[in-house]
Amino acid sequence: NSFLQGAWALLMSRYSGQEDIVFGAVTSGRPTTLARAESMVGLFINTMPIRIQVSPEESLLPWLHKIQEFLVEVGQYEYCPLMKIQGWSEIAKGFPLFESLVIFENYAVDESLKQNNTNLEIESSPGFEKTNYSITLTVVPDQKILLRILVNDTSRFDHNTLSQMLGHLKNLLEDMVANQQQRIGDLAILTEAEQQKLLVEWNDTAVPYPQEKCIHQLFEAQVEKTTDAVAVAFENEELSYGELNTRVNQLAHYLRSLGVKPDVLVGICVERSLTMLIGLLAILKAGGSYIPLDPSYPKERLSYILKDSNASVLLTQTSLLEILPDNQAKLVCWDRDEELIAQQNLENPDFSVTPDNLAYIIYTSGSTGKPKGVQILHSALSNFLHSMQETPGITAEDTLLAVTTYSFDIAALELFLPIITGARLVIASRETTVDGEQLLGKLQESGATIMQATPASWQLLLAAGWAGKNKLKVLCGGEALPRKLANQLLERAGSVWNMYGPTETTIWSAVAQITNESKIISIGRAIANTQIHILDKYNQLVPIGVTGELCIGGAGLAKGYLNRPDLTTEKFIPNPFNTDNSKLYKTGDLARYLPNGEIECLGRIDHQVKLRGFRIELGEIETVISQNPEVAKAVVAIREDAKKYKRLVAYIIPQKEQSLTIAELREFLASKLPNYMIPSAIVTLEVFPLTPNGKIDRKDLPAPEITRSQLSQELVEPRNDIERKLTKIWVEVLDVDLVGINDNFFELGGDSILAIVAITKANQEDNLQLTVKQLFQHQTVAELATVAVPKTINQIEQKISDTSPKIEKEQPSRFSKANLDQQDLERFLAKVKKGSNNQQK
Ligand code: AMP
């Protein structure tokens, strides 16, 4: 009995990932001490909870003995009603103590069974002999031991699942018999055939790729083929492949003269522009690896990245000099040093860069309070881009619209994939990428056939009224793709692809094409030369359908974290399935294999979150808040409000007798964290709710209540039409009761995304002309109203044409810029001005 119950506990443990297992067991209930008990008529059966700790380090036999001792000990409660036991437990009323039941029909065991003890027969009988529990295992020792599984709800467990489950139980039982000295964590649950499928068949991704080539060399090869074709466009500028290459070469030679060579780290902090692309390629050609620095980051973060990486050169532009912190790097200002750069050699440099050199380092949020640098090799990037050329695919006829900030690794797909393929790259400006309406205009005007963005950016485009573009290949990734969004994209685009992958394994590691037939929004399968294994806590493969941690191996793996050997060892573990020193990256993502070999993502193991595509370790924000001397403790959570809008909420316990205001704390955080990491609500508490074992109970933290009564200033009513429009929008977007014209958008719970929503609404519904940047600069209605300009008729007409359903724009519209001369424009503007003066739309 204890042997079978142990096996069942092990099976439940492997399936659930839990170590504390409770199931029910049926006892006969006939008192053995009573001589006549055998012949008494009546139902004596009783059900008891059996609780077994499965600690994988333990050896099998001592563990089974413990179970046996436990069963003897609980024997004294054999006649105790289950209700009474439930009353003694901490499990709340109404919740079952257990969901599975084991019935061991304890007859005398046949001698033949003892000799042939692994001859087990499996039978799954869904819907047969119902009990009150989801799953019932009945064990009938007869000629053979018969294991039979019964289910209550056949919609939850189909026949295949049950057969698989019994098959795993059989494997465990056989391995327990064959290897009695094993640690219980090492007992095998999978059959050889399953192992083969999971390890080999579904990870058979080996394909040749240009292993010996770096990305800039692939670009150079493309330049030879399509010298005069347009390679890249930004606003009104365009460069052919030949021109782009020449500009890159000159900068590369210049960087080389400053000491850039393989594995030298070069920071790059520039606005989105042609120079951004030229700079990135030039750093690679010179042999260096680039570290993107987003100009919107606070000085302190930029300073940390520059110091941590010890970048020896920093490529920037004059207009950004004032936002840069003091640093050790040699400064190259591409506009200031233009003349020097223009004197450099035009030819491809012949520097000895190899695929084993670093291509870039991207900093991502770090749970201990500081961002960490992920080091990516040229070989990983070459493999990745080569794989993307095949699936989702790109050809020389394509135009890719690049919208992602280059501090996010996925930008490397957008910037490099087209130019190693002969396609056309269009770079959208920073203003365009955060303004749905401008983005929509750009998507139409650029003739894009491929665009990659996070779900949040696609939502932005939909919110701006995007009606569709049937030739567009939509790549959506960085965060789970919601079903509703997938459907909306499918209605509007040529094809939709769900892209999955962490920075640590080079941009994307799995890809799925989503179609109207897709029942589950999966992340598909591993890309070329990549392996995905789903493992339990003890690095064993979990069965198909069972949740485990998604671990990635193969050509995309990063070299590790810069200067963080400890963290590198923790996250990049030796590959338990290979003997060649290769590694697996533990992503922290929960996932399962579906029966067709695709993978479904199911959330996170830890406190890393994704908010509008940004990767955030809640621990990093907590650490930064706790650095404020007036804060005693802080915890940060992600919460959904009534409108399903997710936001970061910080809960703080202030130091005693301190009078920290929310505005002061926000200011403190803004000096250290990027906008997207600043909580939109800050709640002050006296104590944190705790779980029974003393940890902070995140589920029990109160929902934030944001009302203007928290603000110190008086309510001042709007004074004119624009102020009225803006206050109305703020009330809607921030979901607050009232807004006064001097109230601060961010103190009322606004964040960088709500800022985009508010500005999109103002521009679309009220025909104002505002940018998100302006809201960051003018944070009250009164201030913002001073810079709000009503739209021209031209722009309104443009919007109407952009949002017309699925019309590919071939002819320029009557009012498009191309058709208007300067005089026309001035006439229009004069008309509109007059109109707006008269308060007419
Ligand atoms: P990053 O390093 O910023 O690319 O973030 C990687 C993490 O984002 C992954 O580990 C996942 O948690 C999440 N992620 C990325 N793409 C997807 C996707 N398509 N579906 C679900 N989660 C995703």
Descriptive overview:
- With 841 residues, the chain is an alpha/beta fold.
- The chain has 26 helices and 34 strands.
- The protein has a nine-stranded mixed β-sheet. A six-stranded mixed β-sheet has the order 2-1-3-5-6-4, with helices on one face. Strands 22, 23, 25, 26 and 27 form a five-stranded antiparallel β-sheet that branches.
- Strand 26 and strand 27 form a beta hairpin.
- The longest helix has 20 residues, at 159-178.
- It is globular.
Which terms would index this structure?
single chain; 841 residues; alpha/beta; 9-stranded mixed sheet; 6-stranded mixed sheet; 26 helices; 34 strands; 22% strand; globular; disordered C terminus; binds adenosine monophosphate
What oligomeric state is this? single chain
- Summing up helix and strand content along with how strands pair, one would put the structural category as alpha/beta
What portion of the residues fall into strands of 2 or more residues? 15-25%
- How many β-strand runs? 34
Outline the low-pLDDT stretches: 805-841
Spatial order of strands in the largest sheet:
8-7-16-15-17-18-19-20-21
Mean pLDDT: 88
Tell me about the biggest sheet? 9 strands, mixed
Whole-Å distance between the termini?
A: 82 Å
Specify the number of helices: 26
- Structural shape: globular
- Radius of gyration (CA) equals 32 Å
Small-molecule components bound? adenosine monophosphate
